[in-house]
Amino acid sequence: MTKKKTPPAKTQKTQAEEAPVPAAARPEEPRVEETPYEAVASICSVLVVGLFILTFLAQNYVIPSGSMENTLLVGDHLVVDRITFSPAAKWFPLVHYREPRRGDIVVFKKPAQDDVDGRPEYLTLVKRLIGVPGDHIHLHNGVVILNGVAQAPPKEGNDSPPSPEQQDFLDEFPSVPPSPDIGATEAWSVEFPGHIESGDLVVPPGRYFMMGDHRHSSLDSRYWGFVPRENIIGRPLFNYWSFVTPDAEYEKTGLGNAVAWMAHVALHFFSGTRWSRTLHRVR
Questions:
Q1: What CATH number should be reported for the domain holding residue 84?
Q2: Residue 26 belongs to a domain
Q3: Is beta strand 207-211 parallel, antiparallel or unpaired with respect to 227-228?
Q4: Looking at the DSSP assignment, which residues form a beta bridge with residue 62?
Q5: What is the model's pLDDT at position 111?
Q6: Residues 6+ apart with CB under 8 A from 85
Q7: Into how many domains does the chain fold?
Q8: Among positive and negative, which fits the CA dihedral 140, 144, 145, 150?
Q9: Is position 56 within any domain?
Q10: 241 — alpha (psi -120 to 50), left (phi > 0) or beta?
């Protein structure tokens, strides 16, 4: 009679083996620290992305004058879209490009030079686009007549009366022609007659006619002529911050004025900020 073999007993784990290992007893994993080179590289990448956005995609712009009141106020800080009006790029077909249209608010380089601290400079301005190439324009009693149709004034336009010496020119343009005596540029005064047909100003190809919403207090295309297509930078998207600012504040120069204004903003940030205009869409 043979004996039945029994399988060998399984080795039982001891209580010490089953107990969890205390955290203090575990081996520490080596901590990877960022090298100075990697820190500098990270900062540079952020700066490059920010520079790309500010150069090609968006731009900050501050309203320096009241020519667009009350659509835009002095002290409004805008984010400007630089993409929509730029030339279409085949390498990025998902972006929507289009030509400027009547009624657009446009940021552009002024076509005439100004004297800024003793040096000539082409200022950056913001106005509403009134006429595109081929449009016939004239004003009568302050009303814009576009291609024979009277246009409604801007909804938020400031309608304060102009000075007496400017009223006929501003309200009856181009019946009253521009001249250096009323502040128009000499170049525009000479070029102007070649664009008149049957009492209308005709916008030539590749040019645009701009006016401020504050029609009686705006140095615009009536004073310095058409804006070339290549001068158009973009369109304001929204107002990210607005601070109560005197009309002539941004015309002041010098370090003392800059420091005094920064101190004023710091002391009156909460009381001087127009909170209702924060993230206000521009249109």
A1: 2.10.109.10
A2: no
A3: antiparallel
A4: 77
A5: 94
A6: 97, 98, 99, 100, 106, 232, 233, 234, 235
A7: 1
A8: negative
A9: no
A10: beta
Q: Is residue 216 part of a domain?
A: yes
108 pairs with which residues across the strands? 125, 232
Long-range interactions of 190-193: CB distance < 8 A, separation 24+: 191/225, 192/225
Residue 15 covered by a domain? no
Structure tokens at 108: 């552009």
Tens digit of each residue's pLDDT (9 = 90 or more) over 217-273: 899 999 999 999 999 999 999 999 999 999 888 878 888 888 998 999 999 999 999
Q: How far is CA 224 from CA 42, 145, 168, 228, in A?
A: 47, 20, 17, 12
Place of tokens 């058409």: 226
Token reading at 196: 């008149």
Measured between alpha carbons, how far apart are the two ends of the chain, in Å?
105
Q: What is the average pLDDT score of the chain?
A: 82
- Domain hosting residue 235, numbered range: 62-242
Task: Classify residue 254 by its DSSP letter.
Answer: S
Q: Using alpha carbons only, give the angle 20, 24, 29 rounded to the nearest 5 degrees.
A: 100
Mean pLDDT on 142-170: 83
Q: Which residue, chain included where needed, has tokens 């207090």?
A: 217
Q: How confident is the model at residue 61 (pLDDT cuts 50, 70, 90)?
A: confident
